[in-house]
Amino acid sequence: MVGGVYFNGYCTLFRTGFCLAACIACCAATAGGCAGRKADMRTLDAVQWITCALRAGRLRTLLTATGIGIGIAAVILLTAVGEGLRLYVLDSFSQFGSRIVKVSPGKNQTMGMAGVLSTVRPLTIADGEALRNIRDVKFVVPIVMGTGPVVFAARSSDTDIFGVGSDASAAWQMPVAVGNFLPADDPHNARPYVVLGSKLRTALFADANPLGQFVRIGGARFRVVGVMESKGSFLGTDLDEIAYIPAGRALQLFNRENLQEMDVVFTENTTSEVISEKIKQQIRERHGDDDITLFTQDDMLSSLDRILSLLTIAIAALGSISLLVGGVGVLTIMSTTLRERTAEIGLLRALGTTQQQLLLLFLGEAVLLSLAGGVLGLSVVAALLGLLKSVAPSMPITIQAFYFVLSFG
Length: 409
Known about the structure:
This protein is of the alpha+beta class.
């Protein structure tokens, strides 16, 4: 079954049977044995025995390594997509600035068994003007939102219409590409001006200059004074298709008496907690009650971060199922291997191999099998990442070192 030749202190094998047993037998039968190279021979023989055992069951080794590789690839890819989406959403919220407090009318109260009751009071443009007088308030943006057709000549586009104040461009960090943003007119009697999103401008005017032209919104004429820079989408809303008009004009257009919300931007000299308390105090003086709800940008980002982090962990747990299946596969294969190689184990024990050495040999085989699966998994990850980048280049993908190491753990 096995032929062996001893030279230069090593045992060279022509294997058709069991590597380590034949090598030990060869060395024992050869004059001088393995004297002087005992430690080196043990390490070399162990490596030869492990690799020979894996090569002997090529198909079994390949299938087991494939299972481990798929599990590793699943964990890395799923968590990369989840982490990429988390960072994308947080970045989408952060693009408008971090020092923002959203003021909404009404205050939710829980009153015994009656459940949640909502007390709604009007939030007016005058309230916004009063908030401007608060120290460390930089901008106040009144907001009225609706939808409707924007018409120019024979072209029309149904789109979102935002009624805002003149500070909206600076407060939301949305620069104007052409022309100017809405001027600082009397908020109750602002001139009928409109600023178009970049896509809306293209839909209505194509390559023509829109500045100074008149469009119709809800039957009223508005003069185009500016075009916004491209900003992309935010939570399903295309910011490049929005028309911005004065908030007072929007109240008339949509037949509303009060604002939907206000954005208060504060300076770096204060904190969101301090400015929130000042806003409550100002509204309390005007309304006689704390009938508003405040949302700070920090609170929203923190809540989103927690939710999205939990989703990423849940996705990692789902991917780990594949890795667990691969691990069970390795355990099954090694258990089957032990039962199939009892004769080999008996021969090794007869030649003086200790139980600890046997354990290390089989553990080494399992480790090498897992490493082969890891290399295969990384190859799959690299191939799929390249495919995703070519098919969906805008998909946010971020590989986290923690989950990368965990998948190999």
